[in-house]
Structures are given as C-alpha cells and as structure tokens.
Design brief:
Elements (H helix, E strand, L loop, with lengths): L22 H12 L4 H20 L4 E5 H6 L9 E4 L5 E5 L2 E5 L4 E6 L3
Antiparallel strand pairs: 1-5, 2-3, 3-4, 4-5
Amino acid sequence: MTKTCLECNEKIIGREDKKFCSDGCRNAYNNKINKDSTNFMRNINNKLRKNYRILSEINIEGKSKTTRAKLLSKGFDFEFFTNILETKTGNTYFFVYDQGYRILEEDYYMLVKKEI
C-alpha cells in the first residue's frame, strides 16, 4: 500500500509512519491548520501585539510613568488587554500579557511589568 502526502498528495517514499513528502509540505499543512480561523481573531491578536509592543518600548525599566497622550500617539488602544488585576489596596491594573498599566491622576499612567 502506498501512502500519499497529506498536503500535495504525492507518493511518500521512506519510513512507514511518514505523513508528508517534505518539510515544505509539512510546514504548509501545519500553517493552514494553525492559522487564525477568522479575520476577527487575527485583528484582535494584531491589536494585542501592537499594545504589547508599545508598552514594552515605553516601559524599559519594568516600572515607569507615562501620559495617555503618549500612549495614544503611538497607537495604543485602551479597549484591548488580556486581563485585569485588582490589588488588595483597590488599585486596578490592566495587563497585556506581562506588561500592565494603572490609571493615575490627570491622565498619567503607571506602567509595570509582571515577573513571570
């Protein structure tokens, strides 16, 4: 019995348990399966990545202070974050993965990085 490649349907030569004829076909097959299934998901993931990049660029030291205007000028979107942390003291932090921010007075923000 001959086996065929799951990606291109070419005949597979080699080991009995092989599923692909080449690394290129294996990569193409897995990329198709693992890509974001909809534009909606892809757009949200792009916004989260952009927010993360902006916070990382500004918060080099792991803890810093910035303004809302500076975040907005770089394209930060305050509607997209991954989780919220409320401390015992009542402070609310919004996180994009391990980069977070907390609203201070007069449009200032405290940026923090969570130790993982």
